[in-house]
Design brief:
Layout: H1 3-10, H2 13-18, E1 24-26, E2 29-32, E3 44-47, E4 52-55, E5 60-62, H3 64-72, H4 76-87, H5 97-121, H6 124-132, H7 137-142, E6 146-148, H8 154-161, H9 166-171, E7 175-177, E8 185-187, E9 192-198, E10 204-211, E11 219-221, E12 234-235, H10 237-247, E13 250-253, H11 256-264, E14 270-273, H12 280-287, E15 292-295, H13 301-316, E16 320-323, H14 332-338, H15 340-348, E17 351-352, H16 353-364, H17 370-385, H18 390-404, H19 408-416, H20 443-453, H21 458-464, H22 473-489, H23 503-519, H24 525-556, H25 561-581
Parallel strand pairs: 13-14, 13-15, 15-16
Antiparallel strand pairs: 1-2, 2-3, 3-4, 4-5, 6-9, 7-8, 9-10, 10-11, 12-14, 16-17
Helix pairs in contact: 1-4, 3-4, 11-14, 14-15, 16-17, 17-18, 17-19, 20-23, 20-24, 24-25
The structure holds zinc ion (ZN).
Length: about 575
């Protein structure tokens, strides 16, 4: 057994994929929302038997290694490394340079995280701050909270003693440098409360540092580095992902403290954007775990604007969105400290997006004045227009008419006169999903899929499939391998294909097998036989027609009578075959 097989034996595809997306049983396979395209119905198929996962809507997937390459955006050797680490398989050592740099940065971050945690223990003032915010010892540990000493070189000295150099630590964003010409590097984080930022796998990828007293900036964050891309990281996700899956809901906040306080209070499905406004990349990441998101942003003007933007992005990503309205204009952290019950009640009473827009419109404008009423209508009508059914539109318009003390008929008229909006629909109503392309897979692919799943029927192919000249190279390679195994053993056993086919071709064959399972539910023997025969027939026909054309061309361009009559004889054979088939 080589190390790849050893990893495969220890980690099944369903266990791996199940850590990223929710999977539901679908016959002999499992299904979930595809992590690689904007998927609204489960298109991602996982086959425990075949050891592959594949989406037939966006045609993406493969075995466990391919899956890691795709989700973690790493190359093959790095994917092998990640999985080997995970299941405890020792690899023969090889070190691609770039991956080595990433590993070193992660190591430096991890050491830094421990260093800051140690410093926190030794700094009563910093501990007092966290205690003052009501955080328990357990919470400090869980979020690896720390303190960066007010020094320009403590961390630098510590890491250099561990064998790191200035350049690496600059790239990692742990040190600063006044200018490129200046060789003096110094600690980036000084005298700050430290919030390590983990990726969803739990690696420390960066830090957020909050100042203890007055001063600017209040929060200082790590820059983007080879291991930290702010647009793809959600704070607290590594701790929240299980709870998010269990609750089928993610609560999205704006601050580190919101997440930490919420988790301590028992809301473990809470996460935050970290040091950036919400991005599509973050929502994609989130969608691996749930389709439902509730926004609990700050209740000030900036928070309202952020909510509006987030709603649009979330709808665009095809997530179901609700808004958590926290009483008395508090942010989640304040609310929870004030009353846990108020927080849980606000979650339970999360409102639909339309209610949020109504409340924004009526808060911003005075419905007692004509100007105010016009502004409210101007704000809400374009939003209502985006709802897909007249039923929904009418319901919201009726409510608006009631609030504005006007006739719903006028609102209908005004709404119909609006020009179609070009920007992102906040309701997601006009979302168009990429339609699955039904014909992307060839008949050969289907036939191969049937044979892979039901090898006992291979003799039908062996007898009836004629001429492989017009096959695409991939299918031809696979057919040739099937034939070779069958000729050698007198029976087709899929296990023996391993030695005849390259890894890629074998995986392709498995995808075809899964394709068949996806298109045909519950295949009985007689149906399989019928489908195989009809596929053979249509493939033969296609090939014969191609051959016919080819010979017609050859005959026209023949240079001698001898050549021509030879070609004509072949051509007549083809015609005979063709008439036998039709
Ligand atoms: Zn897909």
């Amino acid at each position: 057994m080589n190390h790849l097989d050893e990893i495969r034996a220890k980690l099944s595809i369903e266990e791996l994929v199940g850590g990223y997306i929710q999977l539901k049983k679908a016959g002999r396979n499992l299904k979930g929302l595809c992590p690689f395209h904007n998927d609204s119905r489960p298109s991602f198929m996982v086959s425990p038997e075949k050891g592959i996962a594949y989406c037939f809507s966006c045609n993406t997937g493969g075995d466990i290694f391919k899956f890691i390459q795709l989700t973690e955006k790493v190359d093959f050797p790095e994917a092998v490394k990640i999985l080997a680490d995970r299941v405890g398989v020792r690899l023969p050592s090889y070190k691609p340079e770039v991956q080595d740099e990433k590993r070193r940065i992660l190591k430096a971050n991890e050491l830094t995280c421990h260093f800051f945690q140690e410093q926190l223990k030794q700094t009563p003032a910093a501990r007092a701050y966290f205690e003052g915010r009501g955080l328990s010892e357990e919470t400090l540990q869980r979020f690896s909270l720390g303190f960066s000493p007010d020094s320009f070189h403590y961390l630098k000295d510590h890491l250099k003693n561990q064998g790191f150099n200035d350049r690496e630590l600059l790239v990692a964003g742990l040190l600063n440098q006044r200018s490129m010409a200046d060789n003096n590097t110094y600690d980036r984080f000084r005298g700050r409360l430290m919030f390590p930022i983990h990726d969803h796998q739990g690696n420390v990828v960066g830090f957020g540092g909050r100042i203890t007293g007055d001063g600017e900036p209040k929060y200082l964050n790590s820059p983007d580095t080879p291991v930290y891309n702010k647009s793809y990281v959600l704070y607290g996700l590594h701790l929240a992902k299980e709870a998010i899956k269990q609750n089928d809901l993610a609560i999205l906040t704006e601050g580190y403290m919101d997440v930490i306080t919420a988790h301590q209070a028992g809301s473990q499905n809470v996460i935050a954007t970290s040091g950036t406004a919400l991005t599509t990349g973050q929502l994609r990441l989130l969608k691996r775990y749930t389709k439902n998101v509730a926004l609990a942003f700050d209740q000030d003007q900036a928070g309202m604007e952020a909510t509006k933007r987030a709603v649009e992005l979330a709808k665009e990503a095809d997530l179901e969105v609700k808004i958590i309205m926290i009483p008395d204009g508090k942010d989640p952290d304040e609310c929870i400290k004030h009353s846990k019950n108020a927080w849980f009640k606000a979650i339970d009473e999360a409102i639909p997006v339309i209610d949020f827009y109504f409340s924004v419109a009526f808060n911003q404008h005075d419905k007692e004045t004509l100007e105010g009423r016009k502004a409210i209508a101007a704000f809400l009508l374009p939003i209502i227009k985006l709802y897909p059914t007249k039923l929904e539109q009418n319901e919201h318009l009726t409510r608006l008419a009631f609030e504005l003390k006007t006739d719903v008929k006028f609102l209908w008229d005004d709404m119909q006169q609006l020009r179609p909006q070009r920007n992102v629909p906040p309701t997601g109503a006009t979302q168009v999903e990429t339609p699955p392309e039904k014909n992307r897979f060839s008949r050969e692919a289907f036939l191969l899929g049937f044979i892979f799943n039901h090898p006992a029927h291979y003799p039908l192919v062996h007898q009836d499939l004629i001429d492989m000249t017009h096959f695409d190279p991939e299918s031809k390679k696979i057919y040739t391998a099937l034939k070779k195994v069958y000729d050698a053993r007198g029976v087709l056993q899929v296990d023996f294909l391993n030695s005849e086919l390259e890894e890629d071709a074998l995986e392709q064959l498995k995808v075809y097998g899964l394709l068949v399972e996806q298109r045909y539910s519950d295949v009985s023997d007689s149906i399989v036989e019928k489908e195989i025969l009809s596929l053979i027939r249509s493939i033969n026909l296609k090939n014969i027609r191609a051959a016919q054309k080819e010979y017609e061309f050859k005959i026209r361009s023949a240079t001698s009578t001898d050549e021509r009559s030879q070609l004509l004889r072949r051509y007549n054979d083809i015609l005979k075959l063709s008439s036998k088939l039709t």
